[in-house]
Amino acid sequence: MFENDFCPVQDELLGQMYRASEHGLPQLVASVSPEVRAMLALFCYRKSHLYSLAMTIAASCSEHELVQAGGRVGSTLYALSREPAARTSPVSVSGRKPITLSTKPLTQLAPIDDEPDDADFAEFARAVTA
Q1: Does 116 reside within a domain?
Q2: How many domains does the chain fold into?
Q3: pTM
Q4: Cα 57 from Cα 9, distance rounded (Å)
């Protein structure tokens, strides 16, 4: 079902929704049919940067519409969109999730010995003469 992950609305409308204020978004969401709205909520839910938009759109859908469009994922999305914390997930002032970086080293590298020694030359000489 999710292999052909396409946005069910035009890019322009999705962009308007993404940039809309809290007060303007409900009118844009209401302009879309209930079936398309459910598909759009699921589309946005699969994109981490559109999480809060997904929660807002899903809150305007019935459980039946979301389940019909997305099965178990739709049911989960319905439940999440009804939780008070759903719209207050960790986001920055710009409305996007913050980027977190690891504070631990990713790998431990052994020191590199750039100076060849006699054993390296002996090994090389054996390989060349073999």
Answers
A1: no
A2: 1
A3: 0.61
A4: 13
